[in-house]
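re: that chain from earlier
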Amino acid sequence: MHSNFFWIIITMIFFFCTSYTNDKQKTNKVIKYFSNDYTKARKKFIDTSLMAGASIKSLKNPNKGPNNEALYTDIALFGSKDAKNVLVLISGTHGVEGFAGSGIQTGLLQEGITSKLTHDTSILMIHALNPYGFAHIRRFDEDNVDPNRNFIDHSESLPKNTGYEYLSDSIAPNSISFFSNIKSFFKLLWYGVKNGQTKLKFAISGGQYSDPKGLFYGGRSKTWMNQTMGYISEKYLVQAERVVVLDIHTGLGHYGEYEIILNEKEETAAYKRAKKWWGDKVKTTFSNESVSIHLPGSFKLALPRMFPNAEVTAVSLEFGTISSMRVFWALRSENWLYHHGGRNHLKAEKIKSKLLRAFYPDDPKWKFKVWIQGQKIVEQTLMHIQ
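^ sequence. v structure.
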């Protein structure tokens, strides 16, 4: 009896150790899909894309990286250019958020996602749509513009955000001293108490067009990224009858968890398709249930206008990191550094590190979870559109 008990314990230990070793090996494999800077991420993506037989087009940004390196948005097409069904996977729309998206793109290719394509379906991967923000560890582009606030009709009067204008000295201050931060905190707190959290969120992040050095600035004309997306759409997507866009983001939501975000009303065909394909993880900004507020300048809303004859389903695939308050304060500090402190400031490294970790935690478990969920969503999407 004692002998049998001994062997049961040994067997349990063996299976536990084997399971632990296998999980660790899987995690270590996945971690290699991710990179810790733009140059390494780009090299991995290009090398893997070529091995997977991609047709690659690299569009050079007019600006340089922090080490004077050239910056590119890279477009990799897998499958026929004339395919009727196109799945578009985008990383780096919001610069620093590109590390997660790049890891998912590279991992999908290394895991052989292209072998699952039928003859009438293609995958278009856009790597580092905002290469300046990606390389410089910024959420915004070379003009301090938030890309997802720039897709408006610039021939018309620019939208006004009166809440932002009232709070601008607290959202994007000239100083981040202790006393300045305390003053800003109480001003923001009082605005939320007086007007409600929804109005406070929109005042901060809904987009503003009055302060070029402020946060979430939408710009006064089409940015390089906006024009680049127009070029990509005309070159690769005009023939498609069905276009599905997964734009990968980080920074909103519970740690390591995902949400699929639409800027569509619940009664629309796009929302109903998304619910059918991806289930309860789908949220719309119109319902106030999403981790994101509604953004009139989002490029997801511009895509259906670009392809009026196609079935367009454009969503953000958002992965949570830290609390929204900590994300905001990290953005606020980095914005001050960029416009006032300068890259050689004593606090520069600490501020940049906090911003990076707000959108890309230095945590193998987080990366593994993001990868697993990202892979699942892409595979589900292909299953429904082919």
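The chain has 13 helices and eight strands.
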